[in-house]
Amino acid sequence: MSLTHPLTLPPEARTVDHVSMFVDGEFVPAAAGATFPTVDPNTGETIAQVPRADGTDVDRAVAAAKRAAIDWQFTDTIARAALLRALAGLVTANADELARLEALDSGHYLSKAQDLVGAIPLWLDYWAGLADKVGGRTIQVPGNKLSFTLLEPLGVTAHIVPWNYPLLVMVRSIAPALALGNTVVVKPAEDTSLSTLKFAELVKEAGFPAGVFNVVTGFGSEAGASLAAHPDVAGITFTGSTETGRTVAKLAADHIAQVNLELGGKSPTIVFPDADLDDAVEAAIQGFCSHAGQVCVAGTRLFVHTDIREEFLTKLTDRLRSTRVGDGFAEGTEMGPLVSQKQYDRVREYIEIGKTEGTLYHGGGRPEGAPEGGYFVEPTVFVDVPLDARIAREEIFGPVASVHSWSTDDELVEAVNDSIYGLFALLLGSDIKRLLSTARRLQVGGVMINDWFGELPMTPHGGHKQSGTGREEGLEAVHGYTQVKHVSVNLDPSLRAGTNWVDAPL
Ligand code: NAD
Fold first, then answer.
1. Does ligand 1 lie within 6 Å of residue 446's CB atom?
2. Across-strand partners of 382?
3. Which of 159, 160, 167, 250 to mutate to test the pocket of ligand 1 (most atoms within 8 A of CB)?
Protein backbone atom coordinates (compact mmCIF):
# COMPACT_ATOMS: atom_id res chain seq x y z
CA MET A 1 0.00 0.00 0.00
CA SER A 2 1.93 3.02 -1.09
CA LEU A 3 1.57 6.50 -2.38
CA THR A 4 2.25 6.17 -6.10
CA HIS A 5 2.27 9.79 -7.20
CA PRO A 6 3.81 12.98 -5.87
CA LEU A 7 1.53 15.78 -4.73
CA THR A 8 -0.06 17.31 -7.79
CA LEU A 9 -1.74 20.32 -6.19
CA PRO A 10 0.55 23.39 -6.04
CA PRO A 11 1.05 24.73 -2.49
CA GLU A 12 -0.76 28.01 -3.27
CA ALA A 13 -3.92 26.02 -4.10
CA ARG A 14 -3.85 24.51 -0.60
CA THR A 15 -4.83 27.67 1.26
CA VAL A 16 -7.87 29.91 1.31
CA ASP A 17 -7.43 33.64 1.88
CA HIS A 18 -10.57 35.07 3.30
CA VAL A 19 -13.33 33.20 5.10
CA SER A 20 -16.53 34.79 6.42
CA MET A 21 -19.90 33.51 7.62
CA PHE A 22 -23.08 34.25 5.70
CA VAL A 23 -25.83 36.00 7.65
CA ASP A 24 -28.77 37.98 6.28
CA GLY A 25 -27.31 38.04 2.78
CA GLU A 26 -23.89 39.36 3.85
CA PHE A 27 -20.49 37.78 4.49
CA VAL A 28 -19.53 38.72 8.03
CA PRO A 29 -16.99 37.85 10.72
CA ALA A 30 -18.10 36.48 14.10
CA ALA A 31 -19.48 39.28 16.29
CA ALA A 32 -16.71 38.72 18.83
CA GLY A 33 -14.09 38.55 16.05
CA ALA A 34 -13.01 35.04 17.11
CA THR A 35 -11.67 32.51 14.61
CA PHE A 36 -10.35 28.95 14.60
CA PRO A 37 -8.07 27.08 12.16
CA THR A 38 -9.25 24.49 9.66
CA VAL A 39 -6.61 22.05 8.39
CA ASP A 40 -5.82 19.98 5.31
CA PRO A 41 -6.02 16.38 6.56
CA ASN A 42 -3.52 15.31 3.89
CA THR A 43 -0.77 17.35 5.50
CA GLY A 44 -2.05 18.56 8.87
CA GLU A 45 -1.36 22.14 7.78
CA THR A 46 -3.73 25.06 8.32
CA ILE A 47 -5.75 26.05 5.25
CA ALA A 48 -7.64 29.00 6.68
CA GLN A 49 -8.99 30.72 9.79
CA VAL A 50 -12.76 30.35 10.09
CA PRO A 51 -15.12 32.62 12.11
CA ARG A 52 -16.03 31.11 15.47
CA ALA A 53 -19.70 31.92 16.02
CA ASP A 54 -21.28 32.10 19.45
CA GLY A 55 -24.82 32.66 20.70
CA THR A 56 -24.86 36.28 19.49
CA ASP A 57 -24.11 35.23 15.92
CA VAL A 58 -26.71 32.48 16.09
CA ASP A 59 -29.30 34.99 17.36
CA ARG A 60 -28.54 37.25 14.38
CA ALA A 61 -28.80 34.44 11.87
CA VAL A 62 -32.04 33.08 13.33
CA ALA A 63 -33.53 36.59 13.50
CA ALA A 64 -32.65 37.14 9.84
CA ALA A 65 -34.18 33.80 8.89
CA LYS A 66 -37.31 34.60 10.91
CA ARG A 67 -37.75 37.94 9.14
CA ALA A 68 -37.18 36.35 5.74
CA ALA A 69 -39.67 33.55 6.48
CA ILE A 70 -42.59 36.01 6.45
CA ASP A 71 -42.28 36.51 2.68
CA TRP A 72 -40.52 33.31 1.68
CA GLN A 73 -43.33 31.04 2.86
CA PHE A 74 -45.72 32.87 0.48
CA THR A 75 -43.25 33.27 -2.38
CA ASP A 76 -44.89 31.29 -5.13
CA THR A 77 -43.54 27.87 -5.82
CA ILE A 78 -42.54 28.69 -9.39
CA ALA A 79 -40.25 31.43 -8.12
CA ARG A 80 -38.77 29.20 -5.40
CA ALA A 81 -38.16 26.44 -7.93
CA ALA A 82 -36.53 28.88 -10.36
CA LEU A 83 -34.08 29.99 -7.66
CA LEU A 84 -33.20 26.39 -6.81
CA ARG A 85 -32.59 25.66 -10.49
CA ALA A 86 -30.44 28.77 -10.86
CA LEU A 87 -28.42 27.58 -7.86
CA ALA A 88 -28.03 24.13 -9.42
CA GLY A 89 -26.60 25.80 -12.54
CA LEU A 90 -24.15 27.83 -10.48
CA VAL A 91 -23.01 24.70 -8.61
CA THR A 92 -22.22 23.09 -11.95
CA ALA A 93 -20.42 26.20 -13.17
CA ASN A 94 -18.32 26.32 -9.96
CA ALA A 95 -17.86 22.57 -9.56
CA ASP A 96 -14.06 22.64 -9.75
CA GLU A 97 -13.70 25.17 -6.95
CA LEU A 98 -16.31 23.45 -4.77
CA ALA A 99 -14.56 20.10 -5.27
CA ARG A 100 -11.14 21.58 -4.47
CA LEU A 101 -12.46 23.01 -1.20
CA GLU A 102 -14.34 19.81 -0.32
CA ALA A 103 -11.23 17.71 -0.94
CA LEU A 104 -8.91 20.12 0.89
CA ASP A 105 -11.06 20.41 3.97
CA SER A 106 -12.59 16.93 4.35
CA GLY A 107 -9.93 14.64 2.85
CA HIS A 108 -12.08 13.25 0.04
CA TYR A 109 -9.69 12.44 -2.78
CA LEU A 110 -10.13 14.92 -5.58
CA SER A 111 -11.91 12.76 -8.17
CA LYS A 112 -14.35 11.58 -5.49
CA ALA A 113 -15.01 15.17 -4.43
CA GLN A 114 -15.62 16.03 -8.09
CA ASP A 115 -18.16 13.19 -8.37
CA LEU A 116 -19.89 14.35 -5.20
CA VAL A 117 -20.10 17.97 -6.30
CA GLY A 118 -21.25 16.88 -9.75
CA ALA A 119 -24.23 15.15 -8.12
CA ILE A 120 -25.35 18.12 -5.97
CA PRO A 121 -27.56 19.68 -8.71
CA LEU A 122 -29.65 16.48 -8.74
CA TRP A 123 -30.93 17.30 -5.24
CA LEU A 124 -31.63 20.93 -6.08
CA ASP A 125 -33.46 19.97 -9.30
CA TYR A 126 -35.45 17.22 -7.60
CA TRP A 127 -36.81 19.59 -4.96
CA ALA A 128 -37.30 22.41 -7.46
CA GLY A 129 -39.55 19.97 -9.34
CA LEU A 130 -41.46 18.97 -6.21
CA ALA A 131 -41.99 22.50 -4.90
CA ASP A 132 -45.38 22.79 -6.63
CA LYS A 133 -46.36 19.12 -6.47
CA VAL A 134 -46.77 18.42 -2.79
CA GLY A 135 -49.73 19.73 -0.87
CA GLY A 136 -52.59 18.87 1.42
CA ARG A 137 -55.68 16.76 0.71
CA THR A 138 -59.43 17.06 0.86
CA ILE A 139 -61.20 14.91 3.43
CA GLN A 140 -64.70 13.42 3.21
CA VAL A 141 -66.50 14.45 6.43
CA PRO A 142 -70.16 14.11 7.45
CA GLY A 143 -72.50 17.01 6.70
CA ASN A 144 -72.39 19.83 4.20
CA LYS A 145 -68.80 20.79 4.79
CA LEU A 146 -65.58 21.23 2.96
CA SER A 147 -62.65 19.87 4.91
CA PHE A 148 -59.09 20.03 3.71
CA THR A 149 -55.49 20.27 4.83
CA LEU A 150 -52.76 22.72 3.98
CA LEU A 151 -49.16 21.61 4.06
CA GLU A 152 -47.25 24.55 5.46
CA PRO A 153 -43.58 25.25 6.08
CA LEU A 154 -42.28 25.02 9.64
CA GLY A 155 -40.63 28.46 9.58
CA VAL A 156 -36.93 28.67 10.49
CA THR A 157 -35.12 25.35 10.16
CA ALA A 158 -31.65 24.55 11.51
CA HIS A 159 -29.31 22.20 9.66
CA ILE A 160 -26.42 20.82 11.72
CA VAL A 161 -24.03 18.99 9.45
CA PRO A 162 -21.14 16.51 10.01
CA TRP A 163 -17.75 16.65 8.33
CA ASN A 164 -17.81 13.51 6.26
CA TYR A 165 -19.96 14.78 3.34
CA PRO A 166 -20.25 18.51 4.03
CA LEU A 167 -21.97 19.62 0.83
CA LEU A 168 -24.13 16.60 0.10
CA VAL A 169 -25.49 16.24 3.63
CA MET A 170 -26.22 19.96 3.80
CA VAL A 171 -27.88 20.15 0.37
CA ARG A 172 -30.03 17.05 0.86
CA SER A 173 -31.79 18.82 3.74
CA ILE A 174 -31.74 22.48 2.74
CA ALA A 175 -33.14 21.71 -0.73
CA PRO A 176 -36.49 20.37 0.58
CA ALA A 177 -36.56 22.97 3.36
CA LEU A 178 -36.23 25.86 0.90
CA ALA A 179 -38.45 24.31 -1.77
CA LEU A 180 -41.24 23.87 0.77
CA GLY A 181 -41.03 27.46 2.04
CA ASN A 182 -38.76 27.32 5.09
CA THR A 183 -35.79 29.56 5.71
CA VAL A 184 -32.59 27.95 6.92
CA VAL A 185 -29.60 28.38 9.18
CA VAL A 186 -26.76 25.94 8.48
CA LYS A 187 -24.06 25.02 10.98
CA PRO A 188 -21.31 23.07 9.18
CA ALA A 189 -18.95 20.86 11.17
CA GLU A 190 -15.97 22.72 12.62
CA ASP A 191 -13.57 20.68 10.48
CA THR A 192 -15.27 21.41 7.16
CA SER A 193 -16.81 24.87 6.69
CA LEU A 194 -15.16 25.91 3.43
CA SER A 195 -17.29 24.32 0.71
CA THR A 196 -20.47 25.39 2.53
CA LEU A 197 -19.30 29.02 2.55
CA LYS A 198 -18.49 28.85 -1.16
CA PHE A 199 -21.98 27.44 -1.67
CA ALA A 200 -23.35 30.47 0.22
CA GLU A 201 -21.70 32.73 -2.37
CA LEU A 202 -23.64 30.87 -5.04
CA VAL A 203 -26.89 31.20 -3.09
CA LYS A 204 -26.35 34.95 -3.08
CA GLU A 205 -25.46 35.02 -6.76
CA ALA A 206 -28.55 32.97 -7.61
CA GLY A 207 -30.67 35.75 -6.12
CA PHE A 208 -32.20 34.19 -3.01
CA PRO A 209 -33.57 36.97 -0.77
CA ALA A 210 -31.41 37.97 2.20
CA GLY A 211 -32.02 35.83 5.28
CA VAL A 212 -33.50 32.85 3.46
CA PHE A 213 -30.19 30.95 3.67
CA ASN A 214 -27.65 31.62 6.43
CA VAL A 215 -24.45 29.90 7.56
CA VAL A 216 -22.90 30.15 11.03
CA THR A 217 -19.53 28.47 11.45
CA GLY A 218 -18.07 27.30 14.72
CA PHE A 219 -18.01 24.61 17.36
CA GLY A 220 -20.80 22.22 18.17
CA SER A 221 -20.88 23.05 21.86
CA GLU A 222 -21.16 26.79 21.08
CA ALA A 223 -22.80 27.62 17.74
CA GLY A 224 -24.41 24.17 17.33
CA ALA A 225 -25.93 24.04 20.81
CA SER A 226 -27.15 27.68 20.60
CA LEU A 227 -28.85 26.92 17.31
CA ALA A 228 -30.52 23.71 18.52
CA ALA A 229 -31.71 25.51 21.67
CA HIS A 230 -32.99 28.62 19.91
CA PRO A 231 -36.71 29.11 20.60
CA ASP A 232 -37.36 30.55 17.11
CA VAL A 233 -36.01 27.45 15.38
CA ALA A 234 -39.05 25.36 14.49
CA GLY A 235 -37.31 22.38 12.91
CA ILE A 236 -33.87 20.84 13.28
CA THR A 237 -32.19 18.43 10.91
CA PHE A 238 -29.21 17.00 12.69
CA THR A 239 -26.80 14.64 10.96
CA GLY A 240 -24.00 13.31 13.10
CA SER A 241 -23.19 10.87 15.86
CA THR A 242 -25.87 9.20 17.95
CA GLU A 243 -24.35 10.70 21.08
CA THR A 244 -24.63 14.30 19.82
CA GLY A 245 -28.04 13.52 18.31
CA ARG A 246 -29.28 12.70 21.80
CA THR A 247 -28.05 16.10 23.07
CA VAL A 248 -29.64 17.94 20.15
CA ALA A 249 -32.96 16.13 20.66
CA LYS A 250 -32.98 17.19 24.32
CA LEU A 251 -32.26 20.82 23.38
CA ALA A 252 -35.05 20.68 20.79
CA ALA A 253 -37.46 19.20 23.33
CA ASP A 254 -37.14 22.30 25.52
CA HIS A 255 -38.83 24.40 22.83
CA ILE A 256 -40.75 21.56 21.11
CA ALA A 257 -38.99 21.82 17.77
CA GLN A 258 -39.54 19.12 15.16
CA VAL A 259 -36.41 16.98 14.80
CA ASN A 260 -34.95 14.83 12.03
CA LEU A 261 -32.04 12.76 13.30
CA GLU A 262 -29.67 11.10 10.82
CA LEU A 263 -27.24 9.30 13.10
CA GLY A 264 -24.54 6.68 13.25
CA GLY A 265 -24.42 3.04 12.26
CA LYS A 266 -22.58 -0.25 12.46
CA SER A 267 -23.79 -1.68 9.21
CA PRO A 268 -23.41 -5.26 8.04
CA THR A 269 -22.10 -6.42 4.69
CA ILE A 270 -23.52 -9.93 4.33
CA VAL A 271 -21.94 -12.41 1.94
CA PHE A 272 -24.07 -15.46 1.09
CA PRO A 273 -22.41 -18.69 -0.04
CA ASP A 274 -23.62 -18.25 -3.63
CA ALA A 275 -22.24 -14.71 -4.02
CA ASP A 276 -19.84 -13.75 -6.79
CA LEU A 277 -16.78 -13.43 -4.57
CA ASP A 278 -14.89 -10.93 -6.72
CA ASP A 279 -17.89 -8.63 -6.69
CA ALA A 280 -18.42 -9.26 -3.00
CA VAL A 281 -14.83 -8.28 -2.22
CA GLU A 282 -15.16 -5.02 -4.19
CA ALA A 283 -18.44 -4.20 -2.48
CA ALA A 284 -17.06 -5.05 0.96
CA ILE A 285 -14.02 -2.82 0.42
CA GLN A 286 -16.16 0.03 -0.82
CA GLY A 287 -18.32 -0.57 2.25
CA PHE A 288 -15.63 -0.05 4.87
CA CYS A 289 -12.92 1.90 2.99
CA SER A 290 -14.94 4.49 1.10
CA HIS A 291 -13.90 7.91 2.45
CA ALA A 292 -11.54 6.00 4.78
CA GLY A 293 -14.53 4.42 6.50
CA GLN A 294 -15.98 7.78 7.50
CA VAL A 295 -19.40 7.01 6.10
CA CYS A 296 -22.57 6.60 8.17
CA VAL A 297 -23.57 3.46 6.24
CA ALA A 298 -20.04 1.97 6.32
CA GLY A 299 -20.21 -1.83 6.22
CA THR A 300 -17.79 -2.45 9.06
CA ARG A 301 -19.22 -5.81 10.11
CA LEU A 302 -18.52 -8.39 7.40
CA PHE A 303 -20.80 -11.43 7.85
CA VAL A 304 -19.32 -14.07 5.56
CA HIS A 305 -20.86 -17.53 5.21
CA THR A 306 -18.59 -20.12 6.75
CA ASP A 307 -18.33 -22.16 3.48
CA ILE A 308 -16.63 -19.30 1.63
CA ARG A 309 -14.81 -17.59 4.48
CA GLU A 310 -11.26 -18.65 3.59
CA GLU A 311 -11.59 -17.88 -0.12
CA PHE A 312 -13.23 -14.53 0.63
CA LEU A 313 -10.47 -13.54 3.07
CA THR A 314 -7.74 -14.43 0.58
CA LYS A 315 -9.34 -12.37 -2.16
CA LEU A 316 -10.04 -9.52 0.25
CA THR A 317 -6.45 -9.18 1.39
CA ASP A 318 -5.11 -9.51 -2.17
CA ARG A 319 -7.31 -6.61 -3.24
CA LEU A 320 -6.53 -4.53 -0.15
CA ARG A 321 -2.80 -4.86 -0.85
CA SER A 322 -3.27 -3.05 -4.15
CA THR A 323 -5.54 -0.31 -2.76
CA ARG A 324 -3.81 3.02 -3.24
CA VAL A 325 -3.96 5.03 -0.02
CA GLY A 326 -2.46 8.49 0.06
CA ASP A 327 -2.72 12.17 -0.72
CA GLY A 328 -6.15 13.00 -2.01
CA PHE A 329 -4.73 15.26 -4.70
CA ALA A 330 -2.47 12.56 -6.15
CA GLU A 331 -3.72 10.78 -9.25
CA GLY A 332 -5.00 7.25 -8.73
CA THR A 333 -5.62 7.59 -4.99
CA GLU A 334 -8.41 5.25 -3.88
CA MET A 335 -8.48 6.16 -0.21
CA GLY A 336 -7.44 9.43 1.41
CA PRO A 337 -6.83 10.43 5.02
CA LEU A 338 -9.06 10.62 8.06
CA VAL A 339 -10.43 14.09 8.62
CA SER A 340 -8.51 15.22 11.72
CA GLN A 341 -5.96 14.40 14.37
CA LYS A 342 -8.85 13.67 16.74
CA GLN A 343 -10.38 11.13 14.36
CA TYR A 344 -6.95 9.63 13.66
CA ASP A 345 -6.31 9.13 17.39
CA ARG A 346 -9.77 7.62 17.83
CA VAL A 347 -9.29 5.09 15.02
CA ARG A 348 -5.79 4.17 16.20
CA GLU A 349 -7.18 3.56 19.66
CA TYR A 350 -9.85 1.23 18.27
CA ILE A 351 -7.17 -0.68 16.36
CA GLU A 352 -5.30 -1.24 19.62
CA ILE A 353 -8.54 -2.35 21.31
CA GLY A 354 -9.14 -4.72 18.37
CA LYS A 355 -5.78 -6.37 18.92
CA THR A 356 -6.90 -7.38 22.40
CA GLU A 357 -10.38 -8.49 21.28
CA GLY A 358 -9.58 -10.46 18.12
CA THR A 359 -6.84 -11.26 15.61
CA LEU A 360 -5.40 -8.57 13.35
CA TYR A 361 -5.65 -10.11 9.86
CA HIS A 362 -4.66 -7.20 7.62
CA GLY A 363 -3.35 -3.64 7.97
CA GLY A 364 -3.40 -1.88 11.30
CA GLY A 365 -0.58 0.52 10.49
CA ARG A 366 0.22 3.65 8.57
CA PRO A 367 0.30 3.30 4.77
CA GLU A 368 3.82 3.20 3.39
CA GLY A 369 4.77 6.50 1.75
CA ALA A 370 1.80 8.48 3.05
CA PRO A 371 2.59 12.20 3.38
CA GLU A 372 4.09 13.27 6.70
CA GLY A 373 1.63 14.96 9.00
CA GLY A 374 -1.45 13.56 7.22
CA TYR A 375 -3.99 11.42 9.06
CA PHE A 376 -3.59 8.16 7.14
CA VAL A 377 -4.54 4.68 8.32
CA GLU A 378 -4.28 1.41 6.38
CA PRO A 379 -7.46 -0.51 5.65
CA THR A 380 -7.62 -2.87 8.61
CA VAL A 381 -9.35 -6.22 9.03
CA PHE A 382 -9.82 -8.24 12.21
CA VAL A 383 -10.98 -11.86 12.46
CA ASP A 384 -11.94 -14.05 15.43
CA VAL A 385 -13.83 -11.14 16.92
CA PRO A 386 -16.63 -12.01 19.36
CA LEU A 387 -19.96 -10.37 18.47
CA ASP A 388 -19.97 -8.53 21.77
CA ALA A 389 -16.49 -7.03 21.25
CA ARG A 390 -16.32 -3.24 21.22
CA ILE A 391 -14.90 -3.16 17.70
CA ALA A 392 -17.90 -5.23 16.54
CA ARG A 393 -20.48 -3.04 18.29
CA GLU A 394 -19.24 0.56 18.32
CA GLU A 395 -19.05 2.94 15.38
CA ILE A 396 -15.32 3.47 14.73
CA PHE A 397 -15.65 5.77 11.71
CA GLY A 398 -12.42 4.60 10.12
CA PRO A 399 -11.36 1.88 7.63
CA VAL A 400 -11.62 -0.93 10.17
CA ALA A 401 -13.77 -4.04 9.72
CA SER A 402 -14.37 -7.22 11.67
CA VAL A 403 -15.17 -10.49 9.90
CA HIS A 404 -17.77 -12.83 11.40
CA SER A 405 -18.72 -16.17 9.92
CA TRP A 406 -22.23 -17.62 10.03
CA SER A 407 -23.97 -20.85 9.04
CA THR A 408 -27.75 -20.50 9.25
CA ASP A 409 -29.96 -17.61 8.20
CA ASP A 410 -31.56 -17.44 11.64
CA GLU A 411 -28.17 -17.15 13.29
CA LEU A 412 -27.22 -14.43 10.80
CA VAL A 413 -30.35 -12.35 11.34
CA GLU A 414 -30.08 -12.58 15.10
CA ALA A 415 -26.43 -11.47 15.03
CA VAL A 416 -27.07 -8.56 12.65
CA ASN A 417 -30.08 -7.29 14.58
CA ASP A 418 -28.26 -7.45 17.89
CA SER A 419 -27.11 -3.83 17.62
CA ILE A 420 -28.27 -0.47 18.95
CA TYR A 421 -27.92 0.78 15.35
CA GLY A 422 -30.17 0.07 12.37
CA LEU A 423 -29.07 2.21 9.48
CA PHE A 424 -28.28 0.05 6.50
CA ALA A 425 -27.33 -3.42 5.23
CA LEU A 426 -25.63 -4.67 2.07
CA LEU A 427 -26.54 -8.19 0.91
CA LEU A 428 -24.50 -10.11 -1.67
CA GLY A 429 -25.69 -13.42 -3.13
CA SER A 430 -27.68 -15.11 -5.91
CA ASP A 431 -30.77 -16.66 -4.36
CA ILE A 432 -33.25 -13.79 -4.62
CA LYS A 433 -35.85 -15.37 -2.32
CA ARG A 434 -33.26 -15.85 0.37
CA LEU A 435 -31.92 -12.30 -0.10
CA LEU A 436 -35.38 -10.75 0.03
CA SER A 437 -36.53 -12.73 3.01
CA THR A 438 -33.36 -11.67 4.86
CA ALA A 439 -33.94 -8.05 3.82
CA ARG A 440 -37.41 -8.17 5.38
CA ARG A 441 -36.09 -9.50 8.68
CA LEU A 442 -33.32 -6.94 9.20
CA GLN A 443 -33.99 -3.98 11.51
CA VAL A 444 -32.50 -1.31 9.27
CA GLY A 445 -33.67 1.75 7.35
CA GLY A 446 -32.14 0.72 4.01
CA VAL A 447 -31.02 -2.45 2.23
CA MET A 448 -28.93 -2.76 -0.92
CA ILE A 449 -28.89 -6.10 -2.70
CA ASN A 450 -25.95 -6.79 -5.02
CA ASP A 451 -25.46 -3.06 -5.39
CA TRP A 452 -23.16 -0.28 -4.26
CA PHE A 453 -24.41 2.07 -1.64
CA GLY A 454 -25.54 5.13 -3.50
CA GLU A 455 -27.59 8.02 -2.33
CA LEU A 456 -30.19 9.54 -4.60
CA PRO A 457 -32.56 12.46 -4.13
CA MET A 458 -35.64 10.32 -4.82
CA THR A 459 -35.03 7.40 -2.43
CA PRO A 460 -35.59 7.77 1.32
CA HIS A 461 -32.58 7.58 3.61
CA GLY A 462 -32.61 7.18 7.38
CA GLY A 463 -32.27 4.81 10.26
CA HIS A 464 -34.13 2.50 12.59
CA LYS A 465 -33.35 2.25 16.31
CA GLN A 466 -30.55 4.58 17.46
CA SER A 467 -29.56 5.37 13.87
CA GLY A 468 -32.21 8.05 13.73
CA THR A 469 -35.73 9.28 13.20
CA GLY A 470 -37.33 10.88 10.16
CA ARG A 471 -36.19 10.50 6.58
CA GLU A 472 -34.07 12.54 4.25
CA GLU A 473 -34.67 12.39 0.50
CA GLY A 474 -37.62 11.06 -1.44
CA LEU A 475 -41.23 12.07 -0.88
CA GLU A 476 -40.88 10.88 2.72
CA ALA A 477 -38.69 13.92 3.46
CA VAL A 478 -41.66 16.25 2.91
CA HIS A 479 -42.88 15.47 6.45
CA GLY A 480 -39.63 16.74 7.94
CA TYR A 481 -40.09 20.25 6.55
CA THR A 482 -43.83 20.81 6.73
CA GLN A 483 -46.67 20.91 9.21
CA VAL A 484 -50.33 20.20 8.60
CA LYS A 485 -53.12 22.73 9.03
CA HIS A 486 -56.69 21.43 8.88
CA VAL A 487 -59.36 23.80 7.53
CA SER A 488 -63.08 23.06 7.86
CA VAL A 489 -65.75 25.14 6.08
CA ASN A 490 -69.44 24.85 6.89
CA LEU A 491 -71.37 25.15 3.63
CA ASP A 492 -74.86 25.18 5.22
CA PRO A 493 -76.66 28.53 5.24
CA SER A 494 -76.76 28.66 9.04
CA LEU A 495 -74.27 27.38 11.55
CA ARG A 496 -76.34 24.53 13.00
CA ALA A 497 -78.59 23.65 10.08
CA GLY A 498 -78.64 19.99 9.30
CA THR A 499 -75.06 18.95 10.04
CA ASN A 500 -73.96 15.94 12.10
CA TRP A 501 -72.07 17.58 14.90
CA VAL A 502 -69.49 15.88 16.98
CA ASP A 503 -69.07 18.71 19.46
CA ALA A 504 -65.67 19.65 20.66
CA PRO A 505 -65.43 19.20 24.43
CA LEU A 506 -66.00 22.54 26.20
P1 NAD B 1 -20.78 14.93 15.52
O2 NAD B 1 -21.99 14.38 16.17
O3 NAD B 1 -19.53 15.05 16.32
O4 NAD B 1 -21.03 16.38 14.92
C5 NAD B 1 -22.05 16.62 13.98
C6 NAD B 1 -22.39 18.09 14.01
O7 NAD B 1 -22.95 18.39 15.29
C8 NAD B 1 -21.21 19.05 13.84
O9 NAD B 1 -21.61 20.16 13.08
C10 NAD B 1 -20.91 19.47 15.27
O11 NAD B 1 -20.29 20.73 15.35
C12 NAD B 1 -22.31 19.52 15.84
N13 NAD B 1 -22.39 19.42 17.30
C14 NAD B 1 -21.51 18.84 18.15
N15 NAD B 1 -21.93 18.98 19.42
C16 NAD B 1 -23.10 19.65 19.37
C17 NAD B 1 -24.03 20.10 20.37
N18 NAD B 1 -23.83 19.89 21.67
N19 NAD B 1 -25.14 20.74 19.96
C20 NAD B 1 -25.37 20.95 18.64
N21 NAD B 1 -24.51 20.58 17.67
C22 NAD B 1 -23.39 19.93 18.03
O23 NAD B 1 -20.56 14.03 14.22
P24 NAD B 1 -19.33 14.04 13.25
O25 NAD B 1 -18.18 13.43 13.97
O26 NAD B 1 -19.18 15.38 12.63
O27 NAD B 1 -19.84 13.06 12.09
C28 NAD B 1 -19.74 11.70 12.17
C29 NAD B 1 -21.05 11.08 12.61
O30 NAD B 1 -22.10 11.47 11.72
C31 NAD B 1 -21.02 9.57 12.54
O32 NAD B 1 -21.63 9.06 13.69
C33 NAD B 1 -21.85 9.25 11.30
O34 NAD B 1 -22.43 7.97 11.30
C35 NAD B 1 -22.87 10.34 11.35
N36 NAD B 1 -23.48 10.56 10.02
C37 NAD B 1 -24.76 10.09 9.80
C38 NAD B 1 -25.33 10.23 8.54
C39 NAD B 1 -26.71 9.70 8.26
O40 NAD B 1 -27.27 10.04 7.22
N41 NAD B 1 -27.30 8.88 9.12
C42 NAD B 1 -24.62 10.87 7.51
C43 NAD B 1 -23.34 11.34 7.78
C44 NAD B 1 -22.78 11.17 9.05
1. no
2. 360, 402
3. 160
Give the CATH number for residue 382: 3.40.309.10
DSSP annotation of 330 reads: S
Domain total in the chain: 2
Q: Given strand 424-428, what is the order of strands in its sheet? A: 359-362, 380-383, 400-406, 299-305, 267-271, 424-428, 446-449
Q: Is residue 63 part of a domain?
A: yes
Predicted structure pTM score: 0.95
Give percent of the chain with pLDDT exceeding 90: 88
Task: Determine phi and psi for 434, rounding to 5 degrees.
Answer: -65, -40
Identify the active-site residue in 102, 190, 222, 262: 262
The whole-number pLDDT of residue 328 equals 83
Mark whether 291 and 421 lie in a shared domain: yes
* For residues 263-276, average pLDDT: 98
**417-475 residue pLDDT tens:** 999 999 999 999 999 999 999 999 999 999 999 998 889 999 999 999 999 999 999 99
Task: Give the pLDDT band (50/70/90) at residue 503.
Answer: low
Q: Does the C-beta of 287 come closer than 6 Å to ligand 1?
A: no
Asked if 209 and 110 sit in the same domain, the reply is yes
Q: Give residue-wise pLDDT tens across range 15-31.
A: 676 689 999 999 999 99
Q: Is 122 helix (H, G, I), strand (E, B) or coil?
A: helix
Mutate which of 244, 259, 341 for ligand 1 pocket (most atoms within 8 A of beta carbon): 244
Flag whether 2 is in a domain.
no
* Contact (Cβ atoms closer than 8 angstroms) between residue 179 and residue 76: no
Whole-angstrom distance, CA of residue 52 vs CA of residue 167:
20
362, part of any domain? yes
Query: Where is pLDDT greater, at 504 or 133?
Result: 133
One domain, residues 401 and 277: yes
256 and 274 within one domain: no
Q: 100 is in which domain, residue-wise? A: 26-263+467-485
Is the same domain home to 161 and 131?
Answer: yes
What pLDDT, on the 0 to 100 scale, is given for residue 29?
96
Q: What is the pLDDT of residue 7?
A: 36
Give percent above pLDDT 70 in the chain: 94
Residue 231 domain flag: yes
Alpha carbons 439 and 398: distance in angstroms, whole number: 26
Å from CA of 161 to ligand 1 middle? 6
Same domain, 315 and 409: yes
Q: How much is the pLDDT for 14?
A: 65
Ligand 1 centre distance from Cα of residue 189 (Å) = 7
Contacts of 439 (CB under 8 A, 6+ apart): 425, 427, 447, 449
Q: Are residues 240 and 142 in the same domain?
A: yes
Same domain for 428 and 479?
Answer: no
- Res 502: pLDDT: 58
Strands 421-422 and 464-465 come out as antiparallel
